Structure prediction request, 358 residues.
Amino acid sequence: MLFSQNVPGIRPPDRRVLRAFAFDPMTSRLSGQFLSINIPFEHDLEPGPNGDLVQVVDYDATRDCWYQPIDLDDPPVLAQQGLRPSESDPRSHQQIVYAVSMSVIERFQRFTGRRFRWRGDERLRLVPHAFYGRNAYFDPKRRAVFFGYYRADETDTEANLPRQLMFTCLSIDIIAHEVTHAIVHRVRPLFTIATNRDVFAYHEAFADLVAMFHHFLFRDIVETAVAGARSELGDATALLSLAHEFGKSTGRGGPLRSFVGSEPDPELFRRTKEPHQRGAKLHDAPDATRSAARVRPRPGREWPARRASRHGAGAGSGTGPRRRAARAGCPAACGSRVGRPSGSARRRARSRACGPGR
Ligand SMILES: [Zn+2]
Prediction:
């Protein structure tokens, strides 16, 4: 039998699906679920993975060794949506940091409506096993995200074994948080200069919010969490908190950060200077905004003028959306002036290393 040569070509795929833990190995162990992360299919992807926007470089500086890079275009890998997530296979770790990073970058592209690029031909380097330590951080100078690994505490590790080896690169929350730092730095490079105490706090808050909203990308996980919470979204802690495994395995007794379960404390916003704690006040903003949106001025009346000082004790008193927001700790009510950075601020910015453990 003769086949006609005049057949249409087969179009290459547009999307690639890769598996990851949901949302880290511990929560996957408890829920029995994995994530399927749907990302753009890069046709010239090299082993690493090494693509147009991100490059996974798996060098362990503590052990001074390289791990074999994964080839996501290898037919056995390609045919089963990447490797099955495994804590013992470094190639699976490379796959997860690549997939989550590409997913976060694609969200930015969709919501800003334009293609995202690093400067020139640069790419963001991701180092999944960079060092031994309870931290992960974005380094603006080297344009790289470094993920640490560490031993779990000996007690109260929940679904983890005492002294078990833990990897920050397997938490999609930590990956999303750090990659968001890199994206914000690309868009606003001067935000690495602490001209006032809210600059780093904004960095942290925005990175946390992106990591949290990234959860809602996974329909199966959202449905399971909401059903488990009997439709009370406030009880769906899996969705509204970050880095469960990191928090539990480092003796915090809960997730690293939570968006529910704590009463807003406007006084804390005045007391604390630590960027993560200060940025956590912005977590209340979506809830405060939602509350404010429910309130309308009476017909024919305007909102009363805001008389209380921005930082004064009266900032949270009275009624109206701004004051409600201030009472809930919304940093939108705090507008410190941005001036020329001092020498010490520049030095602090240069030595800054942000990470979930800090
Ligand atoms: Zn951070």
Observations:
- Residues 177, 181, 204, 207, 354 surround zinc ion (CB under 6 Å).
